[in-house]
Amino acid sequence: MSNIATAAALVAILSAAVIYGTDLFCALVVRPAASGAADSSVADLLGHVHEYGDRRLPVPGMISVIATAVATATTHGAPARIAGALALVALLAWLAIYLRISAPINRVLRVAAASHTVPADTRNLQQRWDSVIWPRAALQTIALAGLLAIIITR
């Protein structure tokens, strides 16, 4: 394996781990906590959480995609390339779910928090968001496994 592939895989692992950790925390802690909270609490707190997350998390997210592509393209050997391709597909699938389902819900909750309002469908919005958090965490797990496999399948 080239030094470029190793460095890119390590950068991809570290940046993907940020998103993985965030999604796993949301799946294990935020999702059940929000299900027992009042709609006004969900709209306010999670609106503010998404305000920060949607501003700050795209950086490690995009770094993980770019670094995964670089690691996959510069690694040698079929097993490492297959692992890298699997990781890249998982990250792109995660991004599709985020853009199609999570991001629009995040926007509604951000606007609600900023305007101190509670959307009438807050509970439905949160349930829809919750419905994709485990698949998102699973895709990040697959991506991290693929990235680790790049390093160990020299």
Describe this entry's structure for a reader.
There is one protein chain. By secondary structure, the protein is mostly helical. It has one domain (3-152). It has six helices and no strands. It has helices at 3-35, 39-56, 58-74, 78-115, 122-130, 133-152. α1 (3-35) runs antiparallel to α5 and α4 (78-115) packs antiparallel against α6 (133-152). The longest helix has 38 residues, at 78-115.
What key attributes describe this structure?
154 residues; mainly alpha; 6 helices; 88% helix; 0% strand
Secondary-structure map with pairings?
Elements: H1 3-35, H2 39-56, H3 58-74, H4 78-115, H5 122-130, H6 133-152
Helix pairs in contact: 1-3, 1-5, 1-6, 2-4, 3-4, 4-5, 4-6
What's this entry about, in short?
With 154 residues, the chain is mainly alpha-helical.
- The global form is elongated
Number of strands: 0
User: What gap, in angstroms, lies between the N and C termini?
Assistant: 6 Å
Beta-strand portion reads under 5%
Supply the helix-strand structural class: mainly alpha
